[in-house]
Amino acid sequence: MPELPEVETTRRGIRPYIEQQRVTKVVVRQPQLRWPIPDAIHDLEQQVINLVTRRGKYILLESSRGTAILHLGMSGSLRVLEKDYPVEKHDHVDIVIDNGKLIRLRDPRRFGALLWTTKNPLKHKLIRSLGPEPLGDAFNASYLYAASRGRGVSIKQFIMNGHIVVGVGNIYACESLFMAGISPRRAAGNVSKARYQILVNAIKEVLKKAIEQGGTTLKDFTQAGGNPGYFQQQLFAYGRAGETCLQCDSRIKQIRQGQRSTFYCSRCQK
DNA sequence: AAAGACACCTGTCCGC
DNA sequence: TGCGGACAGGTGTCTT
Fold this sequence. Notes:
Layout: H1 4-18, E1 23-28, E2 51-55, E3 58-62, E4 67-71, E5 77-82, E6 91-97, E7 101-106, E8 113-117, H2 125-128, H3 141-148, H4 155-160, H5 170-180, H6 193-212, E9 253-257, E10 260-264
Antiparallel strand pairs: 1-6, 2-3, 3-4, 4-8, 5-7, 6-7, 9-10
The protein binds a DNA duplex through helix 5.
């Protein structure tokens, strides 16, 4: 489900309800996510959540005793609910807050994660080697150009690699490459610096717009309050195989790259 | 070091 | 209607 805009939308949705609030209880109904939820997650109980931050697609709930590291995987979602809200299938974890609300993690496919660290979360194994934030200044044409020299991998897989840049998932990789007019099949090492500048601008633009729209709802993504996102109304390539390109009259193609579907216009993207 | 395949898991949709 | 297979918004790990 979530790429960076969906994760950021989720973070913004839960933050007002839990930042500076005390956790009374962490209820774990299903500990088997991508990795088992550690028992130490209960150390969050009685702690005040000082900050709700994000690094890549990881949401960080920081308390003075430690930090909960949360990832939504492919199908995870967080919602803000009243404390006795009925539990449904795949509702794996509740973080109960002393203001009568709770944050509920639902994740049918269980590719998500909930971990605990007492150290600086940015030094955690899963987080320390991540690439720059796409909306930050460190993500720029010079950086991408330098990082791509000698790389034969396709430009699409390159920008989806979290060690190069975080937060660009399958939808927004397709959309950004469409906006930039770059073929997803082109080798990363064969893209000029000038075209990387165009691509960087496109990625930032697409992600910003998607965040403004509350993310993309394809099937079941909802914001923390239960509303869908609206960015899907402006997808140019993703999910449009066989349909007419919105910029020319040819058809959107679908191919497989790294076991993921890629959608693009072979006329607009070179 | 880089690239590719595979793993994790459930739900849904499509063709027969 | 049932069943098998492909596919789905992610990413760490293992093998070449």
